[in-house]
User: Fold M20 family peptidase from Saccharopolyspora elongata.
Amino acid sequence: MSAKPLSTWCRDRLDELLGDVSMLVHHESPSSEKALLDKTADSITTWLRDRLGAPSRLTRHEHAEHGDLLEVTYAGSTEAPVLMIGHYDTVWPAGTVDGWPFAVREDGTATGPGIYDMKTGLVTGVWALLALRAFDLPCPTVRFMFNGDEELGSPMSRPHIERAAPDCLATLVLEPGVGWDVKAERKGVGIFTVTAHGVEAHSGNNATDGASAVHALAEIIHRLAGEADHERGTTINVGTMSGGTARNVIAGRASCLIDIRISDQAEADRIDAVFAGLRAGDPRVRVEVDGKWSRPPMRLTPESRRLFGLADEVAASVRAPLEPISVGGGSDANFVSALGLPVLDGLGASGDGAHALHEHVIVDDIPDRVALVAGLLRRIAE
Assistant:
């Protein structure tokens, strides 16, 4: 059976589906607002029960500071589950939706804070199960993991994802796609702070007694920029820097915040060695490096390539074949890939504007994206 009828079924119920999207958009869930995150998790739990019935198992992994992780399993035709991951936290501050409510526009897009990244993705995953049930088609056991700390790097939910993924047949991540295509590779992400500790002195009377942390940091930044290797996919960006206390004081302290993206672990090891050997030209300046690799790189491994092949066959029956896209941003798919397990990302909405005021999804694409996920689940179950 082609997956196209699943899209048609969903298209006939598009207004109802968009009602779910609107509901989630209007539940504001900024990553730093614990109370709002808890309310959103409560609403998602209720919504899942309303749409899919009582789950076989529901565990809410609570955290005092971050959004709770919802781990919800619906039994299907397989003993081992398929893991479906999505996040309900967003980058948008509380109150944003008051001036920017959910809306379907005349150009065929729908907009609202968090609609693309990634509340429509959560709806896509749930409606994929509904579509399979409507046609009484095989569906594997599905374990949803919806977390509320992804935009912060998933510090609380990462161990749970890494614990669950090895016991699953595959992992599908409902982050937004790239047009019709899906994300097969993502760069690893490193966040580091470099601090130079110098010697303060009066810049006029005692210039030679001082050792400028600002000057030393400028030299270090120039060196680090030279370690980027665009041919190998390694980018290094000094996003912010600060230092010194006054114009006429030789700076005693300066620091910068660095974002590093890498395509393979060998580059991460190389950059680690660079940081380990980092020294200032003036020996009186002490250099301190703090930070870590928050996400390992996601690679298109043979296991993931087989999963992509199934998705590609389904996509061709719905609309068109897929391209396995590589992107610079990280997601929870990176953690699964680093374990050597099959994972595919970007199965959520098509659109644009993540983290931006032009954030939107393409409404006409949503039924096809639901059919893609549903068809892939069916192929895994067969």
In short: The chain has a mean pLDDT of 98. The longest strand covers residues 188-197. The chain has two domains: 4-186+298-381, 188-295. Residues 188-295 form a domain with the Alpha-Beta Plaits fold (CATH 3.30.70.360).
